Amino acid sequence: MFIILYRWRIKPEKESQFIEAWSEVTAFYRENFDSLGSRLHRGDDGIFYAYAQWKSAEQRENAFAGSPDFVARTKMREAIEESFTEVRLEILSDYLIQK
Fold first, then answer.
1. Are the beta carbons of 57 and 1 closer than 8 angstroms?
2. N- or C-end of the chain: fewer Cβ atoms within 10 A?
3. Which domains does the chain have, with CATH numbers?
4. How far is Cα 15 from Cα 48, in angstroms, rounded to an integer?
5. What is the sign, positive or negative, of the torsion defined by CA atoms of 92, 33, 59, 86?
6. Higher model confidence: residue 59 or residue 70?
7. What pLDDT does residue 96 have?
8. C-alpha to C-alpha distance for 8 and 11, rounded to whole angstroms
9. In 9-66, which ranges are continuous DSSP H helix?
């Protein structure tokens, strides 16, 4: 499994727009490129964190290369005040419960 951690500072007046757009983008990749989905969080530091899962790095690269620049992605970019470098994560131990 391949995991990416994203981090952003979102414009306060655009938080709802960002959440809706993130959800739409995730649904697009799940439906069209068989991604394993994502989770979006707001930290107590005010930073938005997202955790996205893919079967492999290659699958993610192919999905990003093969997808159009659609409205939801534009809405996400409009809502971002600051982006931080994405982090690639390796699973070492996994005890999450999926319901």
1. no
2. C
3. 2-89 (3.30.70.100)
4. 9
5. negative
6. 59
7. 87
8. 10
9. 15-33, 57-65
* Tokens standing for residue 60: 């993610």
Q: Which residues have CB under 8 Å from 50's CB, separation 6+?
A: 5, 6, 7, 22, 38, 39, 40, 41
Question: What pLDDT, on a 0 to 100 scale, did the predictor assign at position 16?
Answer: 98
Entry field: residues in the chain? 99
Q: What is residue 98's three-state secondary structure?
A: coil
Helix/strand/coil for 46 = coil
Predicted confidence (pLDDT) per residue in 5-52, tens digit: 999 999 999 999 999 999 999 999 999 999 999 999 999 999 999 999
Using a 10 angstrom Cβ sphere, with 0-12 exposed, 13-18 middle and 19 or more buried, the burial of residue 90 is exposed
User: Interhelix angle for 15-33 vs 71-79, to 10°?
Assistant: 140
Q: CB of 8 within 8 A of CB of 82?
A: yes
